[in-house]
From TrEMBL:
Tree of life domain: Bacteria
Keywords: Hydrolase
Gene3D superfamilies membership: alpha/beta hydrolase (3.40.50.1820)
Protein name as annotated: Phospholipase
Amino acid sequence: MATMTGPKWGPKNGGAPKMIVFLLHGLGADGNDLIDLAPHWGNAAPDAVFLSPHAPEPHDGAPFGRQWFSLSDRSPPARLAGVQVARPALDAMIDEACATYGLPASAVVLMGFSQGAMMALYAGLRRKEPVAGIMAYSGMLIGAETLAQEIVSRPPVLLVHGEVDEVVPAAASRQAESALRAAGVPVESTFCPRLGHGIDDAGLSAGALFLQRAAAGIQSA
């Protein structure tokens, strides 16, 4: 498996990391797209190192950018096949980071935007070693129909979505919320009025609170 590449930031307090926050970018971006979120959230999790890995594949629909899996075919079966193929690469990145920093998976939070959110939800709910939490922005729960049979861990989940998202409809996160609750996953959601496919101050604040709680849980473990 390829070694993880991409920018990192923190910990803000300058000490050894006690928490790892992955920032998983969307289709056609790369790790540089989300690393600027780290300073916003560093106050909430000053012991965290933020890792924003480049997805493993070049974007097949543009001459630049990366992808976790192809979305040239956006049908549900193709999306499911895509996350299934991409999941081992993300799992390897998580394992590699845990080994690098000497931390367990229970000290990891997965944050993803758009396609990155799809990856965070799919992989995070199926890991034998549970992560501390999942933050899914403007995403979608792929494989919802088999989640009850495949779910292995139930970390707390935060869903954030713009109400006027023109790329991934907000209904996708509402459906995810229902499916996650049905599977016994603790889930909270923030739907942002007048926001399209992006992250606003309300979403940043919701993420900061989520990370604060995750950090407190890790420290008390």
